[in-house]
């Protein structure tokens, strides 16, 4: 157990920097953000200066009900992704029936604010419609998957920067060939479901970049999964299956040293395959970090700074999205297994529960500024 002095030293960030983030918080009497984080000081503006799309996942209910939340996202993001509003379950109440109203609201918001939109996600083993297990069988699953991809992509055709076509399709722990995850899609459609999904997606919206998105491929000890993803995208490229990018979700842990050379090599292998890389779901869980809020924020910020500095040194890394923008709505505080020992909420994102910038905001912005401007 580190003593307090050692703890702060290793955090590599004085409490003073974190204090700045506290003092420069939002004035309580206005939604107007402080000048230090808005306009030319925003993540969006710094990203633009370095040829980088910067944004976050958007909580549909918060966007509809909290104007300050919407103002923050409009101010800070050049790209957004729906946290849940484009997943099959939430949009399909019955077979063949779709309700896109939450996703359409985000599309309207993004258009009004000149933002690009990621589509997330089309084929996943989670968030399947509640009706899925009944009517979908081996006999009709292939067509059902094609129909779903076509229906959803054509609804947004021409307006999506990139789609997570297949999400989290690899899990070597399942012991299947090529490290494929044991999913309903693999069982019902067969082992060519991934190739079929991407070929269908290319036809459905040729303007969208087709992305494969996964997690637990970042840390040194995750090489088995990382290698399986690499092998899959190599095979796809070699066999002419359309794919344009890989999403590295980046759900990081503040108590671990940030990912390093192993992930850097993976990103460079993606570049050799002419694939873009997106940091798609960045958050830094401080569940196991002791200390005060300022001390925790300093450790979280150091992970943001070190991780993004490493990733943004790679020219094919083209976007950074955090999974949410404010701790108020982070999925991590809804996780039973992710509670802190002291019972306090986690602080994984660039803005705290009061929509005030944290030390992570300044660390993310500094890391963006380390990126060569000619990577634009
Ligand atoms: O909207 C319903 C609400 O009407 C209902 O009363 C309530 C209780 O059943 O559920 C609400 O839906 C929940 C939804 O979040 C919105 O809050 C779902 O049950 C819940 O499963 C869903 O969790 C999301 C999870 O993906 C599963 O889809 C999280 O918000 C979201 O942050 C998380 O994000 C995933 C990425 O999509 C993929 N990568 C991992 C990442 C974290 O798990």
Strand fraction equals: 5-15%
Sequence of secondary-structure elements: HHHEHHEHHEHEHHEHEEHEHEH
Q: Do you know the CATH architecture? A: Alpha-Beta Barrel
Shape by Cα distribution: globular
The average pLDDT value, as a whole number, equals 92
- Kindly report the name of the CATH homologous superfamily: Glycosidases
Note down, in words, how this protein is organized.
This protein has 376 residues and is of the alpha/beta class. It has a single domain (13-375), classed as Glycosidases (TIM Barrel, Alpha-Beta Barrel), CATH 3.20.20. Helix content is 39%, strand content 14%. It has 14 helices and 9 strands. The chain has an 8-stranded parallel barrel, surrounded by 6 helices. Helix 11 links the parallel strand 5 (209-214) and strand 6 (245-248). It is globular. It binds ligand G3I.
Topology, element by element:
Layout: H1 4-11, H2 15-23, H3 43-49, E1 53-58, H4 60-65, H5 67-76, E2 79-82, H6 88-91, H7 101-112, E3 116-123, H8 141-155, E4 162-167, H9 184-189, H10 193-204, E5 209-214, H11 223-238, E6 245-248, E7 251-253, H12 261-272, E8 276-285, H13 293-311, E9 317-322, H14 359-369
Parallel strand pairs: 1-2, 1-9, 2-3, 3-4, 4-5, 5-6, 6-8, 7-8, 8-9
The structure holds ligand G3I.
Ligand G3I is lined by residues 83-84, 87, 126-127, 167, 215, 249, 281, 331.
